[in-house]
Design goal:
Rossmann fold; 2 domains; four-stranded antiparallel β-sheet; 21 helices; 13 strands; globular; binds S-adenosylmethionine; SAM-dependent_MTases_sf; RNA-binding; RsmB-like_ferredoxin
């Protein structure tokens, strides 16, 4: 494709994404579906350029002020993720000169928000949590880590193969993968190879799943023959991990209010070889299907709807699409779902509440309010639970009794989880 044509397409895609009326990954996929002729490399350049602009939006908008021409074109030039020579051949002499000028700016002298690229309402609580005695090093490490692309993590389906066997099968297909540092089920793959046609993927030996998500399933630690509920199962990432941990025995209910998301679970279930999973769409958290199971369940996972701010490496648009108001509304929903889900447990059963948010408002605050209102639920030390589930170095994953995963510390998405036992 001619360089200018690809630059124009990048501008068109960026314009659509910057409307922020739907998630960026959906907008990008829809654009690719509409433009079927695009090659693998061109798709990579388009997607990464748009994601770079989303990640560094405040900085790039600031730098773009000095340029000329349409704003999207300036942003695309600044965020360009393809070959530099290719870009240069599409630029006017004026634009090249502008880019050269910008290279002389020392970013260390720019205002903090142009360096962390976070909205104030998000930067403030993170800084308050991570800065120690005025030392902001950790906050800056988090800001940098969230602006990196996430690695590709896989979960090995132990019903089908041992981790080493899956690793060997990937190697035979030319893909290098190493064991994840904490999850005993995980492999971290180098680069972003296409997996969906490989036998090791189509036969259900591996599934794509961030190591952090694997750790939440390990915290629930379901056993053979138990009755388990994945209350917010979505497309079933954690359901599949739980079903395999139960060795395909017992009963695992996968609830969600979204039939569309549960539909996406079906092909994954078929690959996994699991027959102990029962997906069910519910109207809301007090649905009759839920009520019928009151007091009957051994373990319940609440992977609650949340702001998703722990996944900024994959979904950088979320920091611009979420708001303090949206977080407040989510808190109400999270508390209500946790309350209903807790009723399912029999005595001695385990409840896990989890999110992929970094904000205490959606995490510790929800868990502590639940503990205060429910003395019949005894908080469990997450470290002990993870150690019993053979998670390596579990102490480093926990803070104040909760699981707290951070991209800059653990190389995973940001996650929170709290566990209780019903007395
Ligand atoms: C964080 S996502 C779940 C991700 C999923 N567990 C996984 O591992 O792939 C949260 C899910 O909660 C669902 N949800 C929202 N409100 C709900 C409710 N009242 N009851 C049950 N699920 C709900 C959403 O549809 C969404 O799929």
């Amino acid at each position: 494709m001619h360089p200018n044509a690809l630059l124009d397409m990048s501008c068109e895609l960026l314009r659509a994404v910057l409307k922020f009326d739907s998630p960026a990954d959906g907008v990008v996929s829809a654009y690719f579906r509409k433009n079927k002729g695009l090659g693998q490399r061109e798709r990579g350049t388009l997607a990464e350029t748009v994601y770079t602009v989303l990640r560094k939006r405040l900085l790039l908008q600031h730098l773009a002020q000095s340029g000329s021409g349409p704003m999207e074109r300036r942003l695309v030039i600044l965020g360009w993720a393809g070959s530099e020579a290719f870009l240069h051949s599409a630029l006017s002499p004026q634009e090249r000169q502008w880019l050269d000028q910008l290279k002389t700016i020392d970013h260390a002298n720019l205002a903090p928000k142009l360096r962390h690229n976070l909205p104030d309402w998000l930067a403030e609580p993170l800084l308050a949590r991570l800065a120690k005695d005025g030392d902001e090093t950790e906050f800056w490490a988090l800001a940098a880590a969230m602006n990196e692309a996430a690695p590709l993590d896989l979960r090995v389906n132990l019903l089908k193969a041992k981790r080493e066997e899956a690793q060997a099968a990937l190697k035979a297909a030319g893909i290098e993968a190493e064991a994840t540092p904490f999850s005993p089920w995980g492999l971290r793959v180098q680069g972003k190879p296409a997996l969906n046609k490989l036998e090791v993927f189509t036969n259900g030996t591996v599934e794509v799943q961030d190591e952090g998500s694997q750790l939440l399933a390990l915290l629930l630690d379901p056993k053979r023959s138990e009755m388990v509920v994945d209350f917010c199962a979505g497309a079933g990432g954690k359901t599949l991990a739980l079903g395999a941990a139960m060795r395909n025995t017992g009963r695992l209910y996968a609830f969600d209010v979204s039939g569309h998301r549960l539909d996406a679970l079906k092909p994954r279930l078929a690959r996994s070889g699991l027959s102990n999973v029962y997906p069910a769409q519910i109207a809301h958290e007090r649905d009759d299907r839920v009520k019928r199971l009151t007091g009957k369940i051994d373990r319940v996972l609440v992977d609650a709807p949340c702001s998703g701010l722990g996944t900024l490496r994959r979904n950088p648009d979320l920091k611009w699409r979420q708001s303090p108001q949206a977080v407040k509304e989510l808190q109400v929903k999270q508390a209500a779902i946790l309350e209903s889900a807790a009723r399912l447990l029999k005595s001695g059963g385990r409840l896990v509440y989890a999110t992929c948010s970094l904000l205490s408002a959606e995490n510790e605050e929800i868990a502590q309010a639940f503990s205060a209102a429910h003395p019949e639920f005894e908080p469990l030390a997450a470290q002990d639970c993870l150690e019993r589930a053979h998670v390596a170095n579990a102490a480093s994953l926990c803070e104040h009794g909760f699981v707290r995963l951070w991209p800059h510390r653990h190389g995973s998405d940001g996650f929170f989880a709290a566990a209780w036992q019903k007395k």
